[in-house]
Design goal:
This is STI1 domain-containing protein. With 108 residues, the chain is mostly helical. It has seven helices and no strands. Helix 1 runs antiparallel to helix 2 and helix 1 packs antiparallel against helix 7. The chain is globular, with a radius of gyration of 14 Å. The two termini are 24 Å apart.
């Protein structure tokens, strides 16, 4: 169906639910496939096009307009290690994962 963002969100929910880590390898394998498909689909986009597309998603727009998230993202630019600390907060982690899925934060 090529709804990669929704697929990534579902995989992240599965990862969170897999508390006993019985399906970690399978979930991670699916996340890699989804990431590769997203990357291939968006490989020809400019950063500006990516931002425009992502901002059409109301959830992404809300995250990007949140002053706390703006501060976290600015801090992450100057200190990428700080992002790891923020990822310990499940609310911040889900927002960052949403931005990654939208292509705002690049992991490659």
């Amino acid at each position: 169906m090529k709804e990669y963002t929704k697929a990534m969100e579902a995989a992240q929910i599965a990862q969170d639910a897999d508390e006993e880590h019985k399906h970690t390898a399978e979930i991670e394998q699916q996340m890699v496939k989804i990431s590769n498909a997203l990357y291939a689909e968006r490989s020809n986009e400019t950063d500006e096009q990516t931002l425009q597309r992502a901002m059409r998603d109301p959830e992404v727009a809300n995250i990007m307009n949140d002053p706390v998230m703006q501060q976290i993202l600015q801090q992450a630019q100057s200190n990428p290690g700080a992002l790891q600390d923020h990822m310990k907060n499940p609310i911040v982690r889900s927002k960052i994962q949403k931005l990654i899925a939208a292509g705002i934060i690049k992991t490659r």
